[in-house]
Every structure is written in C-alpha cells, then in structure tokens.
C-alpha cells in the first residue's frame, strides 16, 4: 500500500510535526510506504509530488485546519482525521485506510 498524507494544525507548530511523525511511524509499523507533507506557519514543507499522489492508494489528512492544494486529490480515496486522533489511535486510522482501499 502506498499513502500520501498531509499534517496540519491551526497554529502550524507542534501538533503538525507530531502528527507527521506519527504517520511515518504507522507506515513503518504496518509496512506501507508513506510520504508526508506538512503545512505549518512557516509554509508547506516536503510538498507531495504529483507522481506520489498519482501512485497513492489513498490520501491521509491529519488536519485541524483547511489546507492548500486539495484539488490535487481529485478522484483519490481520502481518510480524514485530526492530529490528536493520529497521535492517540493510529491503529484506528490504519483500519479506516484499509477499509477505504478495499471499496
């Protein structure tokens, strides 16, 4: 499974980067490839490449605020959560991703 993700919170500080780290950790634990973009007060970092988005089985949005570039995910399967849930219940998010990919 290949996943692209965005992590973002309103202040764009600690929760954004903690969520990004949690997403990467989940990918390593569950054995899927993941690329994470962060959108913070300092802007977009590690911007997702078009090729990665095209090849992704799903998009994971761990966000607490609106994000830039949502049009990139047209016709993609999306799992949306908040930064707190990806930190506290990553296995629940993984199950959602598996369910949506299976549709």
TrEMBL record:
The keyword Transferase applies. InterPro entries: Bacterial_PTS_Sugar_Transport (IPR050864), PTS_EIIB-like_sf (IPR036095), PTS_EIIB_2 (IPR013011), PTS_EIIB_2/3 (IPR003501), PTS_IIB_fruc (IPR003353). Residues 1-99 form the PTS EIIB type-2 domain. Keywords: Kinase, Phosphoprotein, Phosphotransferase system, Sugar transport, Transferase, Transport. Gene3D superfamilies: 3.40.50.2300. It comes from the Bacteria. This is Fructose-specific phosphotransferase system IIB component. It comes from Breznakia pachnodae.
């Amino acid at each position: 499974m290949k996943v692209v993700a965005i992590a973002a919170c309103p202040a764009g500080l600690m929760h954004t980067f903690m969520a990004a780290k949690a997403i990467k950790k989940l990918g390593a634990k569950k054995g899927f490839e993941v690329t994470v973009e962060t959108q913070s007060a300092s802007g977009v970092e590690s911007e997702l490449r078009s090729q990665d988005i095209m090849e992704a089985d799903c998009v994971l949005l761990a966000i607490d605020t609106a994000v830039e570039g949502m049009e990139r995910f047209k016709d993609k399967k999306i799992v949306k959560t908040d930064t707190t849930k990806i930190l506290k219940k990553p296995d629940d998010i993984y199950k959602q991703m598996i369910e949506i990919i299976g549709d």
